[in-house]
Design goal:
Elements (H helix, E strand, L loop, with lengths): L3 H5 L4 H4 L4 H16 L7 E6 L6 H13 L5 E5 L7 H4 L8 H5 L5 H4 L1 E2 L5 E4 L8 H5 L2 H13 L2 E5 L8 H6 L4 E7 L5 H13 L4 E10 L6 E7 L2
Parallel strand pairs: 1-5, 1-6, 2-4, 2-5, 6-7
Antiparallel strand pairs: 3-4, 7-8
Length: 230
């Protein structure tokens, strides 16, 4: 019997088609992140982008799946409190989530949901709040990060784009590492450099860049390329 995730979700290719070249590229991304943590444990990692529609949510969802496939206890947190999508991707209820916990209206256990992927738990964004940046920058959020870090081997965060709002910068300053997703052919170079600068201003640990939707010559699929920071 196929799970709802298999029937309805095309974005999580690492689950629906784990032998595909794109899935292998995600596994390479996972491995590169592991190697980036030789001198510093990278337990909490955020995936963001310069602007909307660059593939950050697809990237973090697939990264969460390939991490869980190594039998690491993995948590995916939707910290995009403005335009959350993780609950759609994994076909989950979003009546409770991160904002519920941060507002003191639910326990950590009550907002954690099991996914269809073994070893992968998810915390959806929850109801959209009027003050996303303030919630992400709160002491309660810092405590939340500490708690989930104690309970999971790997915690991945989906965040809003860097340029649009301050949320990503606020969250990045609290985490072990950041991956920046850039869409090939559409992202303006100056905008990408500006996004990198804004993350550096808050002393974020930029692990590298994922170049998304780069078409391989002679092939019909797109690949993700991970480049370490210079």
């Amino acid at each position: 019997m196929k799970s709802n995730l298999q029937k309805t979700q095309r974005s999580v290719i690492t689950f629906t088609n784990p032998k595909s070249p794109v899935s292998e590229a995600y596994r390479t991304l996972r491995t590169n992140i592991e190697f980036s943590g030789i001198d510093r444990e990278l337990k909490t990692v955020m995936v963001t982008s310069t602007g909307p529609s660059e593939g950050k949510s697809t990237t973090v969802a697939n990264l969460a799946v390939v991490t869980a496939q190594t039998e690491k206890k993995t948590l995916l947190v939707d910290a995009d409190l403005r335009k959350p999508t993780v609950h759609h991707t994994f076909d989950l209820n979003n009546r409770q989530g991160l904002t519920t916990y941060l507002a003191g209206q639910g326990t950590l256990e009550s907002v954690i949901q099991k996914s269809h992927v073994p070893h992968l738990d998810i915390i959806t964004a929850g109801p959209i709040p009027p003050n996303p940046a303030e919630m992400l920058g709160s002491k309660v959020m810092s405590r939340f990060i500490e708690l989930v870090s104690e309970q999971y081997d790997q915690v991945l965060f989906d965040s809003p784009p860097v340029i649009a709002v301050t949320d990503a910068q606020v969250l990045a300053s609290k985490l072990d590492g950041v991956i920046l997703v850039i869409d090939s052919g559409t992202t303006n170079k100056d905008v990408a450099v500006k996004a990198k600068g804004q993350l550096e201003n808050v002393k974020a640990n930029i692990l590298g860049v994922v170049l998304n939707n780069k078409k391989m010559q002679g092939d019909s699929y797109y690949y993700y390329y991970y480049g370490t920071k210079k």
